[in-house]
Amino acid sequence: MVYKMNIPFVDAHCHVYGLGKDRLKEVLKDTVVVGVAEDLDTSRKIIELSNQFSNIIPLVGLHPWKVDTATEKELEEIVSLIDKARGLGEIGLDGKARALEKQLMFFEQQLKIASEYDLPVNLHSRAAWQEVMNLLLKYEIKSAIWHWYSGPIELLKDFEAQGYFITINPSVIFQDKHLKVLEQAPMSIILTESDGPYEYRGKYLTPAEIPSLVAFIARVKQTTAKKVKQAIWENLLRIFPTIEFNNNK
Ligand SMILES: [Zn+2]
Q1: How many whole angstroms from 13 Cα to the centroid of ligand 1?
Q2: How far is the CA of 197 from the centre of ligand 1 (A)?
Q3: pLDDT digits (tens, 9 = 90+) for 163-214
Q4: Alpha-carbon dihedral angle through residues 144, 149, 155, 159, given to the nearest 10 degrees
Q5: What is the 234 CA–ligand 1 centroid distance (Å)?
Q6: Which CATH number fits domain 9-239: 2.40.50.1070, 3.20.20.140, 3.90.1570.10, 1.20.1250.20?
Q7: By three-state DSSP, how is residue 134 classified?
Q8: What pTM was estimated for this model as a whole?
């Protein structure tokens, strides 16, 4: 068999610093990973890892769960890393988490930066989906990845109209709301993610789950895993047009 261009798997939302170098090396042989941060420390770690591994796309940001204890100074320092990053994430709002007003303030500051530098955002939007959408429009954000999207189905057509993407997480096999999203979303807005390393309802999520997730998506969409893999890679290239997959590590 002759191999044509090697298409990688995509993990469009992964906390890479939690994986351990050996695991990470293994994963990056066949996967391009969008590394999302949660605070200053992890933002720095992601930049460092992306210098060592070309298949990591580094994002920096302050997670809504971390806002509660974060300072303005920390946010400033995260933002000062922006020249070394390819976007902002994981940022957003969490309607079920604490300090909503401060979350909103810090999210807006990060959206301003994304808008100014014309960078993609990788979003946490649990129980605040419409609010997040309104803010993206307010700040004229052109490129967005809605991570593990399990919000209202009605928003999918708005995402499509704006050129936004959603990620599907391996939990889709047992999370009904998320499965509904997968069923209704067109392939043209879908990416895969692990959110790893993370344990959710007894399932251990890591980038190693992506191949079986792709196979699952193919079954739901009644197509082949190969076609799904290709479509997802092309979707990622719409967000990061200059990236290349380097399978020589
Ligand atoms: Zn995450």
Answers
A1: 6
A2: 9
A3: 999 999 999 999 999 999 999 999 999 999 999 999 999 888 999 999 999 9
A4: 30
A5: 22
A6: 3.20.20.140
A7: helix
A8: 0.96
